[in-house]
Write a structure and sequence with these properties.
The chain is an alpha/beta fold. It is built from 22 helices and 18 strands.
Amino acid sequence: MRSIPILLTGMPGAGKTTSGALLARLLDVPFLDLDSYYEDVYAAPPAEHIVELGEPEFRKREAKLLRKVLTESPRVVACGGGTLAQPESLREALRKGLVVYLKASTEALAARLGDSSRHPLLAPSSGEDSDHRPLDSARGRPSSDLRKRLADLLSLREPSYRRAHRAVETEGRSPFQVALTIREALAALRPDGYQWTCLPPEFRKVGRGAEAYVELGHRTHMVRLSSGQSPHAHGGFAGLAAFLEMVAGGFVAVLVDKGVLARYGSELEAELAGTEHVLIPIPAGEEAKRFSRMGFYLRALLEAGLGRSDTVVAVGGGSALDAAGLAASLYMRGVRVVSVPTTLLAGVDAAVGGKTAADLPGAGSFRGAKNLAGTFRAPAGVFVPVEVIAREVAERRNPDGLAEYLKTALLAGWTDALERKPNLTERGIESMLARCIEFKIAVVVRDEEERTGARTLLNLGHTFAHAIEAASGYRVPHGQAVGRGLVMAARASMRLGFANLGLDTVVERAAKRYGLWPSEPGVSAAAAARHLSSDKKRAGSRVRMVLLSDVGKATVVSVPISVVENLMASCW
């Protein structure tokens, strides 16, 4: 496989450095910012040498560095705004690399720059008022002088920019979307010179956190574990604002669980202080998922002024993420959503995969149904605040997330996770989150909308669990129900002749280690059985159940409801 350098060109403020760094991560190649490289080599920033040495001398030195860079493929290079406006440098870049022009209007460029303090070629001429000052937030616009100087400089450089192999519009797109657009265009632009493959579902350290990618074509998005950031800013949510700027942008409407808001409101507000946003409280727990509440959420988004290019941020447990995600997918036929799980359960399950949901209430003979209304809507990104989740586990010792971790261990064949108690330190929780998310990403990438059966396997134990939850009026916590459901699924697998001898014992022992078994369901088997008919996996008179033949070996089986009802009693 042969690769060539990718060079990003465009005006100051076009986002070459930010989008370029993301593109390099998507392609798994090195990234180089040419201005930073210049400063490393010459011990002075480009702006200083432009003033001290003059632009012609600076361009000679810059061109020398560019020639060196063009021999060191593959890599992504963010060029200075004027680098490829020089004829010789442009010819060499077009011949040896792939040049992409990042476009933006002068209005957008001026808004991003705010002032010209770091760009001497945009500085006021003698006699002109200086605008080397921050953007006036009250006015909300940079000076007309800066916009004019940008327009003048763009008119000089644009003929060179237009010779790029591809132009990519950056307005209305986040830096991540820009990077993704460039990556999607690479094969078509130079099939002989650049090939890329989807990244594996593995977390990689980036800065103080770790990132993994859910590879879904143009809907590919990032999952970020934000561990280790709290000493630097606003508690466990530190880094969220930067993440939103990277993957979403625009105005932000935060649909946040009331309990989370009460506990972490000050931290959340402090982190988002520089972001145009509004906080919209929503009920805690399953109450958030009442379908009748969707109208309230949609009206709240409308009253907040959310537009089609803006973003909903869902903050809370699994119910909050499900409900806010559904509201985002319905509002204006779909706006961006970013998920921020604050519980272990939400982190290992609801945050990843793009499922949204609401519960339908019972009426007449209809008993109601959990998650029957919903959509598949890939998020723009997932931000996992590990410290917040670790606090939740430490304070509540809530087994909900542990049940989903146990489920994943049974599906993935992680015998080490079955044979010892989970490590509930912050580091242990981070490892738990990473393992589960990586496993789920691999499943979602193969079967995003649950059409081939691969994603259906993630419902191991849930046929029984959902019936128990419904029978209790959702007073039984999800984790407790799933813990019992996993043991019952293992027993059902034995009774139906699918499982190897002793599997039920293996699962029971693991559930005991996790504090999930034995448990008091608070309802009878008969009461739970009556709710099987409203399981969303039902097809006519049959229900699709996930059964185990062994640890790491699951299958989906269509079972008559009458048989499942009998299993509910015999496996209780």
